[in-house]
Amino acid sequence: MGPFSLKNFVVAAIGLSLMGCSIIPKFGSSKEPPPPPPVVHKPVRSIAIVSVAEPQSEQILTVGTALGAGDNATLTQPRIDNSKTYTQLLAARNTLFGPDVVKTLTAALTASGYSVTYLADQRAFPTPDGKTEDLSQIRTDADAILVIRFTGAGYVSSPRELSYQPWITATARLVRTATKDELYFKTFNGGYQMTVDSAADLPSSSKYRYLYFRDLTAAVDESILGLKASAHDIAVYLGNDLFNGEPAAPLPAPVLPANAITPKDGAAATNNPPSDAKSP
Question: How far apart are CA 151 and CA 128, in angstroms?
């Protein structure tokens, strides 16, 4: 074999360098970029409660197997007429449940360190599927928005308990303002216990029971107190359950400049005059 020429050496060197590029792994070039870090939301410390609508007339019910106007009307009582009558009695007395619920809930959340505002002039609307809320018209700087809806009210009896008893149902939904993520949702039954999965059942006092419909209408003012008591129980439960009873996260300590005088230092400076100061 002839001498290894410079030309052959150059060709061999180039070939080896190309082989080396294909053999040596390309670190980092074929890996996928790392996933972005999870978004850490600041804890909820402020809540805006949107306007709480009162139960509509079609949601006011007086139904059940309790006795009607006549002693022998157990199963043939005019339920629609009874509901209409009781609805009119409530309307004549301008019965409102929302203000008491908002007041009770605000007191409970404020006591736990949360800042609460009531947007009496702003309402949320359920989405067409009924699974969430349309909050596009809500204007607030609060961390979260709370929507409370009454879904039923009135007096109801059951085959097991013939007397009329209070019945009020409501839902509560807490949504993060920035992302519209749902943070909390629950259904509440106050008084008469409807069969609803995962609902919070809050029995009413036996004080508000009426055997006959005429007894209910004769004591309508007292019966309204029974409904309001059940609504109050819902507000108390919600105030304790919304954040599992935990107080609001404390605000972070303010970051002061390195040369700032703290209140403690300021007090010391005030009480200790410079050494060259003359005594009075």
Answer: 17
Cβ proximity of 66 and 209 under 8 Å: no
By DSSP bridging, strand 60-63 and strand 125-126 are unpaired
What confidence tens digit (pLDDT) does each residue in 55-82 have? 988 888 887 654 444 444 444 445 778 8
Domain 46-241 fold is Rossmann fold (3.40.50)
Residue whose pair of structure tokens reads 């508000």 in the numeric block: 208
Closest CA relative to residue 127, chosen from 200, 183, 60, 182: 182
DSSP SS3 for 208: coil
CB 62 within 8 A of CB 155: yes
pTM above 0.85, yes or no: no
Query: Domain ranges in the chain?
Result: 46-241
- DSSP type of residue 238: H
Eight-state DSSP code of residue 128: T
Distance, CA of 145 to CA of 174 (rounded, Å): 6
Q: Are 222 and 164 in contact (CB under 8 A)?
A: no
**From residue 28, how far is each of 21, 22, 37, 197 by CA, in Å?**
15, 15, 19, 52
Using DSSP's 3-state secondary structure scheme, residue 206 falls into: coil
